[in-house]
Design a protein that fits this description.
Layout lengths: L1 E11 L7 E6 L20 E4 L17 E3 L5 E3 L9 H5 L5 E4 L1 E4 H9 L2 H7 L2 E5 L7 H13 L3 E6 L5 H9 L3 E5 L5 H8 L4 H12 L3 E8 L7 H12 L7 E6 L4 H7 L15 H8 L6 E3 L3
Parallel strand pairs: 2-8, 8-9, 9-10, 10-11, 11-12, 12-13
Antiparallel strand pairs: 1-2, 1-7, 3-6, 4-5
Helix pairs in contact: 2-4
Length: about 300
């Protein structure tokens, strides 16, 4: 089977226990206003064009019908005309262009993951499958996790929870741990912020809990979007009802690393949002009343 992915990152220490290799998949059904991995939204490969790096040298123009230069010297890139040949990335001196995404077999991906097997064994690490949303490529992800298990590599699945229940149940049966995002509780606000209602997400979480799955709740906290006192109270109560069935909950404060990437993939850039780290202690204090262990990412 094949998987569409945009990065295989080695020596990760924040995507589960120990030293890990994280496979970042392409394709996500959500449309979060604050997305920090916008290059994962589309399943297919795409060109990332960093305009601020472009010197308008013209080296890409001879090979690309999707590019032109305006009278005032600005380079224009028309994504609808792009053939995704990747020649612009080869010609660019300034790394203003990059081809994001490729497809490969689960066997080849696992072979790359296995290169760090000694580190997993000494640190208690393994493989993390992230995204994007792994449920978008469910059959191939299940195959990859199954093969990893046969090699003695444990798996963590970073997920929005939006997908078919059978996908999550199959991964649980393979012993996977779930790093499960909860982006909000209020239905209408969740739809505005992410493009989907949370019903399926919450039902999948509770189904995993009922089966005794290993779960870490991840809480993306976005100032002004999902951190009002009402939002926090709803989230606190949601966690309190499930505190005996999760390992811990981890606050993921908003950061701005995704803004340039949103521009690079041609996605509308969201309004500026304050950095979340400054509010982390307030969020932790509020949510600690749930009775669960509350951590902050990066600490």
């Amino acid at each position: 089977m094949e998987l569409s992915y945009f990065n295989i990152q080695k020596f990760c220490i924040h995507d589960g226990p120990g030293i890990r290799t994280t496979v970042f998949l392409k394709g996500c059904p959500l449309d979060c206003l604050w997305c920090h991995n916008p290059e994962s939204k589309r399943t297919e490969p795409e060109i990332m064009f960093y305009r601020h790096k472009c010197s308008v040298c013209g080296r890409c123009l001879d090979f690309c019908s999707a590019r032109s230069v305006t009278a005032d010297g600005q380079l224009i890139y028309d994504r609808e005309k792009c053939l995704l040949c990747g020649k612009c990335t080869e010609r660019c001196y300034n790394t203003a262009n990059s081809l994001c995404g490729k497809k490969d077999t689960t066997e080849n991906i696992l072979a790359e993951v296995k290169k760090d097997l000694p580190f997993y064994k000494t640190s208690g690490g393994g493989m993390t499958v992230s995204g994007g949303e792994p449920a978008m490529q469910s059959k191939a992800v299940i195959e990859l996790v199954r093969m990893a298990k046969e090699e003695g590599i444990e798996s963590v699945i970073e997920t929005s929870g939006f997908g078919e229940r059978d996908f999550f149940m199959s991964l649980h049966e393979l012993g996977a741990t779930f790093f499960f995002d909860i982006k909000g509780i209020d239905r209408e606000k969740h739809k505005i912020n992410t493009g989907v209602y949370p019903d399926v997400i919450h039902k999948n979480l509770d189904a995993l809990i009922a089966e005794g799955a290993k779960i870490v709740l991840r809480l993306p906290m976005i100032p002004g979007k999902n951190d009002s006192d009402v939002d926090l109270a709803l989230l606190r109560d949601f966690i309190a009802e499930r505190k005996d069935h999760i390992e811990y909950a981890e606050i993921m404060p908003y950061h701005e690393m995704g803004r340039d990437k949103n521009t690079a993939v041609g996605r509308e850039v969201y309004d500026p949002i304050p950095a979340g780290k400054q509010f982390a202690e307030k969020w932790r204090e509020f949510l600690s009343d749930s009775g669960a262990e509350i951590r902050v990412s990066g600490e």
